[in-house]
Amino acid sequence: MKKQFTSYQKLADLLNRKWSITLLLACMWGIQANGATKPRNSVAGTTPNNRSVSVKPAVFAGEKVTSFTLIDADTEKDIQTIANGAVLKLSSLPTKNLNIRANTSPATVGSVVFNLSGAQVQNQTQTEKPYALFGDASGDYYPWVPTNGSYTLKCTPYSGGGGSGSAGAALTVSFKVETGTTNPRPYVTAVRPANGATNVALDQSVSVDLRYPGGNYIRTTTVNTSTVKLYSVSSSGAKTLVTGTAVNSTAAGDAVTLSASLKLATTYEFQITDGVKDDNGNSLIPFSSRFKTTSVTQPPGNLDGVSFTEKTLITTSFGSDGFTTLVIGPDHRLYAATSGGKIERWDINSDGTITNHKTISPFGSSRRLLIGFHFAPSATASNLIAFISHSSPLFTGTPEWSGKISRINLNNPASPQVVDYVINLPRSYKDHSTNSIDFGSDGALYFTQGSATAMGSLDGAWGNRPEKILNGAVLRLDINKAQSQGLPVNVKTQEGGTYNPYSSNAPLTIYATGVRNAYDLVWHSNGSLYVPTNGSAAGGNTPALPSGTVWSNGSKYTGASIPAMTDVRQTMSDYLFRVVKGGYYGHPNILRHEYILNGGNPTSGSDPGEVTAYKVGTPKEPNYRGYIYNFGLNKSPNGIIEYRSNAFGGKLRGKMLVCRFSGGDDLMVLAPSASNPNSITVTEGIKVPGLRRPFSNPLDVIEDVKTGNLYLSEYYDANGDGQPRITLLKADKPATSGAVADRLITDTFVEQNKEATGLSVSVYPNPSTGDNLHAEVKNFGFQEAVTLTLHNAVGQVIQTTNLVTDEQGAGSQDITLHQQVLRGVYILKAASASGNTQTKVVIE
Question: For the Secretion system C-terminal sorting domain, which residue ranges apply (predicted)?
Answer without folding.
Answer: 763-843
